[in-house]
Structures are given as structure tokens and as C-alpha cells.
Amino acid sequence: MPRLSEATRAKRRQHVLTSAWSCFSRNGFHATSMDDVISATGMSAAAVYRYFRSKDDLIDATAEVGIGLVRDIFDYILTIEPSPGPAQTLTLIVEELRKRTQHPDYDLSKLALQTWAESLRRPALSERTRALYNESGGRLTELATRWQAEGQLAPDADPNSVAPVVAALMHGLIICHHVAVGVQAEELLRGLKALGTALEN
């Protein structure tokens, strides 16, 4: 049998992973079996296990990709010149998160919820998830530092304190989308302005 090229191997690995995402989006991590994933791929069991040895491997890869996409949002925002202000940044985050829900076969925001729950029972995944989110927090701190330099954030503000607030809002938006009611960017900004005014009193 001819040896597969690296590009072909990468394409097949991604096919297995996205097939798993479809199963996970429908039934969750624990109600999905490797047999379900293998069936969804249309590949042989041996071929699937060549790329992922277990369901835990698939879950770990899902976490890596999902959190990497979150990090990519902030990497993209940091490339914009001039830097988008806080209001525009929150609008961009809401729009990017909305895009994550629109694939016809899977919902990456739903997989984020499952990953958070899974990390509570698996210390290794929890550690890796925390490390990846810390990377995203670093991007947010850099963005807040730019806001400060450009006069969009008070001179005495602490950019390190701004970052976790934005991160918490983003994660809260995902939860609201699935277990409560979706939040529009305009509604979020109105609420933040009202809360900011109240906190100053």
C-alpha cells in the first residue's frame, strides 16, 4: 500500500475529528461511543484508531481546537488597525461566537460547554484547558493595554483586571445561548454601561 502524504493524513484526521463533533453535538461526550464515531466517518475502525486511540483523545483534540478558536478571535482583533474599542470588541466577540453555532453538522459552542464539564473530572484536561485559556487572557490583556495607550481606557485602570471581565462575558454568552436566552451585542453594551454607572456611585 502506498504511504499517505502528510496532507492526506491531516485531511483524514480532520475528517475523523469533525465526524466526532457531529456525534458529540447530537448526544454529548458520554453518550457517544467510538463505534458511533467510526460509523459517522465511513472509515474502517483500524483507520480511525490510527488517528485517535480513544474517545478521550478525541475529546482532548476537541478542546485544543475549540479553545484555539477562541484564542484566534483575539489574535484577529489584535491585527485590526486602529484597535477596535471596547464596544466594538464586544460586538466582534458576539458575532464570532454566533458564527461558531452555524455549521450544519456541529456546534462548536455546544462542545465548549461539554469540554468545561469534562475538565472537572479529568485533571489533565483541566490543566490543559486552563493553560489555553490563560493564553487567551494574555491576548485580552494586550488589547486592554492598547485601549489604555489610545485613551479608550482610564490611565489608572489595570489591564490585567479588564481581561478576565471580557473573558467571563464571552463564556457567559455561550451559556446564555444554550441554557437561557441569546444576548444581542446592543443589549450587552446597554447593560454594561448601566452597570458601570452604578459601580461608580
The residue-averaged pLDDT reads: 87
Helical content band: over 70%
Distance between the termini: 73 Å
Secondary-structure content class: mainly alpha
Major β-sheet annotation: none
Hey, roughly how much beta strand do the residues contain? under 5%
Calculate Rg over CA atoms.
20 Å
Count of helix runs:
9
Shape: elongated
- What is the number of strand segments? 0
Poorly predicted ranges (pLDDT <50, ≥5 residues)? Answer: none
Counting copies of identical and different chains, the oligomeric state is single chain
Give the H and E element order: HHHHHHHHH
Task: Summarize the SSE layout with pairings.
Elements: H1 6-27, H2 34-41, H3 45-51, H4 55-79, H5 86-99, H6 108-119, H7 123-149, H8 159-179, H9 185-200
Helix pairs in contact: 1-2, 4-6, 4-7, 5-8, 5-9, 7-8
Notes on the structure:
There is one protein chain. The chain has 201 residues and is mainly α. The protein is built from 9 helices and no strands. The protein has helices at 6-27, 34-41, 45-51, 55-79, 86-99, 108-119, 123-149, 159-179, 185-200. Helix 1 (6-27) crosses helix 2 (34-41). The longest helix has 27 residues, at 123-149. The chain is elongated and about 65 Å long.
Concise account of the structure shown:
By secondary structure, the protein is mainly α. Helix content is 76%, strand content 0%.
Notable features of this structure?
201 residues; mainly alpha; 9 helices; elongated
